[in-house]
Design goal:
By secondary structure, the chain is mostly helical. It has 19 helices and no strands.
Length: about 400
């Protein structure tokens, strides 16, 4: 009798947690899929430049590889959304996992760097094509007032691997060498891909029949508020992109701290983001999205300036805490995108949103590099100014009634 009461209390406690975190079955499965493949990819992803170098690639080729990665990340978004709307969430997920797994195999057997570059076109199928489908699943499964919390779970499970897997991957590279270490990581990822595919088979999402329309029709379906959010988002991501690849150079070359210390700063940034996700997501669902999106955009503006002004490692730690706070309104922003996407073209709308955003900010890193030649501090100052402009644009153009 007492054992039965305890079992019921335990079940009720788990049910309350699941309700608090919006752990709907399909959202949980999709988030777990992100986590599993994220663990695998982050074991070797940060070490790919060294892998390319070991296979004979020069610095310009490695730079081209990074550009190609950004390009695929942009152009794969809409096709991924189209497949998710037309074939269903589960079938499209399985296609993305299969394509990415084929890419892992190409990486694994590559005798020279051109094969790795070719394999990138397959590997990016999971990272980029699956993104609109994941957004759509959260929109399909959760009511409007619970979506920010759903994106909170997805965001946490996406970033936990970034904190833990590169450490294990680095130890593996140190022990086995770059080539054997990357190969071992790829084998682990292939195993996790199989487990992820089995998990995805349990998805059960019913969607409305996809509306037959072209990309222009999808754009015309965008709510005016979604277009305004996109404009401010582009400005903010230009701020981020202008210094994203330069931050490690500023910390190590200008401020004189080691690469290991920079790794510590990245970990601090990720941990900060993870800690703020749950309370921010829960409050955003209750009081509205706009204050949290403003806080996120303002943190984007402050981060490059804080890095530039840092005169000691302790102040730099505070700067990277600010960097982590850039995520405080990300679940709210993602929920807004889904809120304003028409149900029968939800995944395509998300894909088109990110396609436009990613292509628009492509020149930002190159502009930052040119400004660095004037003085290393210049791109950080300019990025901060652009970030403030993006924050003001969002605050002035997106009304509170549409962001709640």
């Amino acid at each position: 009798m007492q054992r039965g009461i305890k079992a019921n209390e335990s079940w009720a406690w788990r049910a309350r947690i699941a309700d608090y975190l919006s752990l709907e079955r399909n959202v949980t499965i999709a988030s777990a899929a992100i986590f599993l493949l994220g663990i695998g990819e982050e074991l070797w992803k940060k070490f790919l430049p060294k892998y390319l170098e070991a296979l004979g690639a020069s610095a310009p080729i490695i730079g081209f590889f990074g550009t190609a990665e950004d390009f695929f990340d942009a152009v794969y978004q809409y096709p991924g959304g189209w497949l998710a709307d037309h074939l269903g969430r589960r079938r499209s997920f399985l296609i993305f996992i299969a394509l990415a797994s084929a890419g892992y195999l190409v990486y694994l057997v590559s005798p020279s760097w051109p094969f790795v570059v070719a394999g990138l076109a397959l590997v990016m199928a999971w990272q980029s094509m699956a993104s609109p489908a994941i957004f759509a699943i959260i929109g399909d499964a959760l009511l409007r007032e619970r979506r920010a919390m759903g994106f909170t779970l997805q965001s946490i499970l996406k970033r936990v691997p970034i904190v833990i897997a590169p450490v294990a991957g680095g130890a593996m590279m140190a022990r086995l060498g770059i080539i054997r270490g990357v190969h071992t990581g790829l084998l682990i990822t292939l195993l996790l891909a199989v487990i992820t595919a089995v998990l995805v088979m349990k998805l059960n999402v019913t969607i409305k029949r996809a509306k037959a329309t072209n990309i222009r029709g999808v754009w015309q379906s965008f709510h005016a508020v979604l277009k305004r959010l996109l404009i401010s988002d582009i400005i903010i991501r230009t701020c981020e992109g202008m210094t994203g690849v330069l931050t490690i150079l500023y910390v190590t070359n200008i401020l004189g701290f080691s690469v290991a210390r920079f790794g510590t700063l990245i970990a601090i940034q990720m941990v900060t983001a993870i800690l703020v996700y749950i309370p921010a997501g829960k409050i955003a669902d209750r009081v509205g999205r706009k204050p949290f999106v403003i806080a996120t955009f303002l943190s984007f503006a402050l981060f490059p300036v804080a890095v530039m002004l840092a005169s000691s490692f302790s102040i730099l730690v505070l700067a990277f805490v600010v960097g982590g706070l850039r995520e405080i309104g990300e679940p709210a922003r993602k929920a807004m995108i889904v809120d304003f996407a028409q149900e029968n073209m939800r995944a395509r709308s998300v894909g088109l949103y990110y396609l436009v955003r990613s292509l628009s900010i492509t020149p930002a890193a190159a502009i930052g590099g040119l400004l660095w030649k004037i003085a290393p501090q210049v791109p950080f100052v300019v990025a901060g100014i652009i970030g403030v402009i993006g924050t003001v644009v969002f605050a002035a153009t997106v009304e509170e009634q549409y962001a709640s």
